[in-house]
Amino acid sequence: MKTMKFTQASVNAYKAPAGETDHMVHDSALPGFGLRVQAGGSKVYVVRYRLGDKQSRLALGNADKVTLDAARRAARRVFEQVANKVDPAKERAKAVANTSANILSLLPRFLSYLTSKDRAVSYVSWNDFCLSTHWKPLHKFSLNDIDRSMVAKQLEVLKTASGETSSDRCRAVLSKFYNWAIGEGLADSNPVQGTNKVLEGNSNKRDRVLTHAELKTIWNKLNGDDYGRICKLLILTGQRLDEIGSLQWSELNLDKRMIELPKERTKNGLPHDVPLSDPAVALLKTMKPKGDRKFVFGHGKSETKGFNGWSKSKERLTELAKVENWTHHDFRRTLSTIMHEELDIRTEHVEAVLNHVSGAKAGVAGVYNKAKYNPQKRDALEKYASFILANAA
Hints:
Blueprint: E1 3-4, H1 8-13, E2 22-27, E3 33-38, E4 43-51, E5 54-62, H2 68-83, H3 88-100, H4 103-116, H5 121-134, H6 148-162, H7 164-183, H8 212-221, H9 226-237, H10 241-245, E6 252-253, E7 258-261, E8 272-275, H11 278-284, H12 310-321, H13 330-341, H14 347-354, H15 363-368, H16 374-392
Parallel strand pairs: 1-2
Antiparallel strand pairs: 2-3, 3-4, 4-5, 6-7, 7-8
Helix pairs in contact: 4-5, 6-7, 6-12, 8-12, 9-11, 13-14, 14-16
């Protein structure tokens, strides 16, 4: 075993002996610490150690980028770990795994896990949308670097942008994701624990219906950007946020004046036809495909995401409209209320517009009643569009 006294100058000048393609030289002042030199000229500091019956070698960095003093300190830390019966190679592997394990990189595995548990397609889709969109600000951090304060801060953003119910539901999704990650050995703890629910014990109950004045103000403050078009379609159709925000060109049939949502994109896992009123058709005709992008709204090259930027867009609209404590989902509740109370539309037709399986389509009745009610839905949505435009005037 060749040894020499390591100095920064001697390391810089050292070359592999002629004929050797992979050469090792060790520091005479620190046994186990050495320099690996290859024929091409690359030099890497290494440390050799024995733990039990196993002898291992660990690279400490390129000698052109790491100083001798820094490499020696790293070698001594390795020897300290070995003295405490800790394997440095395993600790480094865990550190690398923790760095690469983040929400986005683990999302496919988590969704596969949910699918394996026979969860509904709509439930899996909601988890996908929530983790990839609402928790996007945390994607750049490894799982173990995300703490309670970071989660609480984003929950506050979600409460402002999407409402209290949405904030609580996103909280539940992230908590479930972390519990799964802990079980897989990918996270040490769940940072959601200890954060506050907004609607304690009442997260599924919300009865906000926009007044005519609020609806008029919001409508008139919407501009011609993607967010403005999306909100107008949400108001005119009563559909869910992601169903319109991630609308695809393949789901849009302007010849039939219809949005045709496949079962994979609906909450109840059933295909859903949404007749388009005259204002909705006119709005969609202003849209043009953006290159090869399959989504009607949004920008970028992503083939898995529609519109993004909900929080900031809603904050700007709220400031302009001066309407407090509202959410995008309130458009659905408002549509249902106005259709029932002011337009005298039958409940089963309103439920069909909203793609709810209840009333005439629930239980035993649903086994025999397979009607899509498309003509009735079209009539209801045309009447509602006329109401919206008259109210906005």
